[in-house]
Design brief:
Layout: E1 7-14, H1 20-34, H2 38-59, E2 67-74, E3 78-85, H3 99-103, H4 113-120, E4 123-127, E5 135-142
Helix pairs in contact: 1-2, 2-4
Length: 148
């Protein structure tokens, strides 16, 4: 079990689809060591996978010479995850996809990643990089959702 001291874990993965599973596994291991409930671990794994895929596709344009950085920072009751890429970044606009339209095939099935991330974690922040610094998404997930 990870104690109350701030614990930091860093992973760099290639910008190739499939390697998001390495980041998912790392996040899962850290969350389990912290004592997260199984349902929260599953939320975290999905959010980390979505963030990594977005970083690979949109940030690094699937350039396998560029990597995606994943930094996990554990505290007593929360885990912060930063997923960094080399792209210019963007501000997350509040977007509520129309799931019914997607299910009927009236909208592209893709495009739910940011919505999904925001639904699964307690905090999600997209930060634009400036010259010489990476863009990143910062996720915070607590052991238990507020109100539980």
């Amino acid at each position: 079990m990870i104690d109350g001291k701030n614990t930091l874990v860093e992973v760099r993965i290639p910008s190739r689809l499939g390697f998001e599973k390495v980041a998912m596994g790392t996040a899962e291991s850290v969350a389990r060591l912290m004592g997260f409930p199984a349902a929260r671990v599953e939320d975290l794994k999905t959010a980390v996978a979505e963030a990594c895929i977005n970083a690979m596709e949109h940030g690094n344009k699937l350039n396998d010479k560029l990597s995606v950085g994943v930094v996990l920072s554990a505290t007593d009751d929360a885990l912060e995850v930063k997923v960094m890429d080399n792209g210019p970044g963007f501000q997350a606009a509040p977007h509520q996809p129309d799931i019914d339209r997607k299910m009927r095939g009236e909208e592209e099935a893709r495009g739910m990643g940011m919505f999904l991330i925001q639904a699964l974690v307690d905090e999600a922040e997209w930060v634009k990089g400036s010259r010489g610094s990476d863009s990143y998404v910062r996720l915070v997930i607590r052991m238990e959702r507020e109100g539980e």
